[in-house]
Amino acid sequence: MTVRGRFITLEGLEGVGKTTNREFIESTLVERGIDVLVTREPGGTDLGEQLRHLLLHATAPVSAEAELMMMAASRKQHTVDVIEPALKSGQWVLCDRYADASYAYQGGGRELGIDVVAALHDLLQIDLQPDLTFLLDMPIADGLNRMAARGKPDRIEKEALAFFERARAAYLQRAHAQPDRMKIVDASLSIEAVQEQVRTLLLAFLERDHG
Ligand code: T5A
Asked: 171 C-alpha vs ligand 1 centroid, how far in Å?
């Protein structure tokens, strides 16, 4: 019988180093002979990538509710077409953002509230839970400064500081409520120091998982 793969996600605000650590986690898993599929949200399917483009670059106004529904549409397609089949086949999946991002950005940042995000996910039957989530956390201004050094901000990166403060608070609240799954990483340190934290948490997970 094929053993179901594990689902690992990376979360956090802009510029906290998700992409940087995604590559590090992937190589750590591959070194241990684990077959891992790397993907992202919004995106991960043709439809998801088209929605991602709209979400990040739309010039027309996007209501908070429309934003939530586009994120959820991308997630449903991605979960059904990519994530679930990979997990069922025994592959591990490493995803740059998943449902926690909607709780943080749309529930917290856009002030739609946790219940609305949860109700939409229930309605769409998006009930997959990551086995392990890294929440990379650091002061918002520092992350935005890292992003500013990279060039033109997208539609969401142009939001006011208060929006990101609410999203960060929602992320942290979620992590404190689910400490076994969501591990907070201090992302303000050097790349090496951040990777050391990630490595320790990942190895502890692997030990538990195989233990
Ligand atoms: N969104 C997403 C929602 O609102 N709801 C949802 O449900 C979902 C799924 C997606 C946007 O969509 C929103 C959230 C986002 O606004 P994105 O591109 O996935 O956008 O997210 P970003 O956070 O914008 O991703 P980035 O790739 O741009 O940032 P990362 O991945 O966090 O950061 P990274 O690794 O690219 O690093 C940024 C820079 O910092 C440097 C890197 O070299 C790089 O130059 N860096 C460090 N520098 C110093 N010290 C360290 N420790 C460093 N780590 C990285």
From this structure: 15
